[in-house]
Design a protein that fits this description.
156 residues; five-stranded mixed beta sheet; 2 helices; 37% strand; globular
């Protein structure tokens, strides 16, 4: 009986498609929007608050201007009543990952470009923006981005 159960479990695992990672080709690899920063190097600090307000969910501020090559230490605080996350990426990557999160809402992350916080939680995300352009930061918990929880990083 145990052997049969193991075979059924093994078959289910091999037939289940893998859950995509959070747009991370390798922890530490460069991406279109930059690379993980070094906590040991100096950074400009940008404080980001996550909260719910008047039926909306939001990041405050929701716009950040950065110089190409600059390292930012995002100090993130969740002042809301719900879990929230901040995921830095391209808009296309974040939208695609948001779709994956809708299908797998309990997905856990261990990615240098993302932090998930419980209510009243605080964390830091250090990122070096190596390429010019407009990039996205979003809360990809199902329904949160749609409720207004996204922002833009402009790198010049």
């Amino acid at each position: 009986m145990l052997t049969r159960s193991l075979l059924v479990a093994l078959a289910a695992l091999t037939l289940t498609p893998p859950v995509p990672a959070l747009a991370d080709p390798g922890h530490g690899a460069a991406r279109a929007y930059g690379e993980p920063g070094s906590p040991k190097r100096s950074s400009r600090v940008v404080e980001i608050v996550m909260r719910e307000s008047d039926g909306r969910m939001e990041f405050v501020p929701n716009r950040v201007a950065v110089r190409k090559g600059e390292q930012i230490r995002f100090v993130i605080r969740n002042e809301g009543e719900l879990d929230h996350e901040m995921v830095v990426g391209t808009l296309a990557e974040n939208l695609a990952h948001g779709e994956s999160m809708r299908k797998n809402p309990d997905m856990e992350h261990d990615d240098p470009n993302a932090r998930r916080l419980a209510p009243k939680g605080r964390d830091e995300l250090v990122w070096r923006f190596t390429k010019a352009g407009e990039f996205d930061f979003s809360c990809l918990i199902p329904g949160h981005r749609e409720a207004g929880m996204f922002g833009t990083v402009t790198v010049k």
